[in-house]
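=== How it folds ===
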Amino acid sequence: MDTSVDGTDAVADRVDSAAGRPSSAADRPDSGTEGGTDRADSAVVRDALGVGIAVGLSGFAFGVTSAGSGLTVLQTCALSLLVFTGASQFALVGALAGGGSPFTAAAGAFFLGVRNAFYGLRLSQLLALPRAVRPFAAHWVIDETTAVSLAQRGRRGARIGFTVTGLSLYTLWNLTTLLGTVGAEAIGDTDAWGLDAAGPAVFLALLAPMVRSAQERAVAAVAVLLGLGLLPVLPAGVPVLMAALAVPIVLYGAGLRAQRTTGGQGR
């Protein structure tokens, strides 16, 4: 449940540093004139709607996949309404379809969803929403809303991007989930269509441009090796959890290299 948006903080910071502009999205001023502001707002709305519609349509694939894994229409729709984080939803129903226990399936989905908490830390500073609104806005803190918000050049644009992306994506995702669940019988064998791969594929489309440093690439590579290598020997859902070990493994390796470098310089 993600699509590629190229406006992350790191990219924006490098561009702004070269131009002598403030580096933080929250510190960048909005357009100075009313006409410029209107044009900027229209561009934000257009981009946000594009992301919301493109990703929201993949809810159909989730509905079909969920129905194929044995979940009822009510259970499937409840997942989209209450959980609303596509990668975690696909991980849950995929593990169940593969014969995994509900516990391991839920655990894998939970760990995938933890990333949204870190998004929230960044967005809380950027958006600075009123306290009464924050509990409701937290439900829309996902990959897409975060990417669109961070792509904007001011707090006003970030708020518009977050709201439009969240509203359009939440509405369309839940609608297409219902349609996919109801229409699953007409489609037939979901494995033949490969719809279960739609969620992970869209998720990787957003993740790939954000993996820039050598250390980040190493973590991604080790996670893939762990997940694929353990897939034949562990129950469904568990390889996803084990892939999280890529982070300490890479950090440990980086620490060893740093010690060797320091030791070599000391001799």
